[in-house]
Amino acid sequence: MNLDEKYFYIPDSTDNISFLTEQLFRQQTQSWQTAAGNYKGLEKIKVRELGIGRMRFCIQYNPERIRSSAAKVDAESISKRKCFLCLQNLPEEQQCIPVCDDFIILVNPYPIFPKHLTIPKLQHTSQLIAKNAGTMFDMAAILTGYVIFYNGPQCGASAPDHLHFQAGSKGFLPVEKEFAEMKSRLPAHRYKSVEISFATDYLRRMITLQSDSRDCLIEAFEKIYGILVALQPHEHEPMLNIICYAGKDEWIMHVFPRIRHRPAQFFASGERQLLISPASVDLGGVLITPRNEDFEKITSEDIIDIFNQVTAGKAEFEKIMHEINKLK
Q1: Residues β-bridged to residue 61
Q2: Banded pLDDT at 69 (limits 50, 70, 90)
Q3: Which of 29, 49, 228, 292 has the highest count of CB atoms within 10 angstroms of its CB?
Q4: What is the pTM of this model?
């Protein structure tokens, strides 16, 4: 199968890809039964809020996300299934828009956001953010109504064998508003034109890069990535999740260092089990529960415990901060 058989529209250099994406979204949610049904179903899903200090968490009961939350991502399981992001394996009804030379924009048929996109690379290549941060910034600049996010191969990516980003409606994740509110109180370091902030008391510790310079942001991110590599030299890629979006005159990128894929509750049995596999959306403040029993019983204490298990601890984060503060 070639791209011409799947494209919704091939833009030229003067076309507004953001506008075309909205057209693609309307077309897919009208003509593709799976997508249409699941987006309609979002209107009826159960949602509740939990507050922890100044932080707000939205708990979403979304049974269709069981495919992602419980996905088997070990090498043996991956080798036994077809890659669902490769062009030849896409559903017949699924169409795309080419973007950034070698990526395509797809409507995600199993949404969390009111509008949810998947943006895979055309070539089948491993999920690695190294050398691809520039693409993430470009996506954020093109899709200004969306946040772009990246799940590491051991941090929530259900297709760790195929490089991809996702995008969701801007304003949906609590982290966007909460960062704006707490930014002035955060310790920070300046690297060239990039302001690097450290959320040390945000439950899931977070590094934020802000700048109007794409090149400086890429350089700063790659240096931070190198610091994380040094702390986890045994990993194919340091464990992390990333959320990125474009503001009025700048980009904002939140980096969440990780130490564990899934919490103990995921593997527990009986009443102790919580089928939660934290990824970028969860760290952004929207926790996805694919089972109703988990939606009903999860507590603030559970969230604190889960994030403490899977994200960088205080001592490790201090090491990261120390190394970043040496950047000049």
Answers
A1: 46, 289
A2: low
A3: 228
A4: 0.95
